[in-house]
């Protein structure tokens, strides 16, 4: 749910003239949230959001210049970052990290992120906000887990953390788009083994 305190419009969306009613913004976000859950990102339209919120399209555009900016704010409002605890066990921490990544990317807002990043490619302000408030904090959690593994001697000191993070997210995103049924516990084990040993995953024993 959208917190009622989330009424401050993003800087890029502010317009000159009389400030819009902040309660309208909350209603618009509620309407966008419901529509996103029902129809997915591609099914969200400004016309339908405005209709459900009981406002005009002009009011929506006073807060957000386009749909990607609106949905980006919705994603930011829902973003909850949970660090992976330091347990002293690198394998367990990596497994917890991968489970968190898979859970996020298979959830509604995680699936939306892929389309949203592509849609905001020509909107640097919105894309930067997504990176700073959603993508980078999640990436930092993974970075911390890897750095702890390096400090314990469980991972090579010269490991390319950014390349490894890209590899993980790319694999999960690919399977999500083409083989969602392949995202299960075995995927977590494959990723953990890849991180710890650098070996190409083997087929499971039957």
From TrEMBL:
Region Disordered, residue ranges: 1-24
SUPFAM superfamilies according to UniProt: Homeodomain-like, Tetracyclin repressor-like, C-terminal domain
Top-level taxon: Bacteria
Keyword Aminoacyl-tRNA synthetase: no
Native source species: Actinoplanes octamycinicus
Pfam families, A to Z: TetR_C_11, TetR_N
Residue span(s) of domain HTH tetR-type: 22-82
Protein name per the record: AcrR family transcriptional regulator
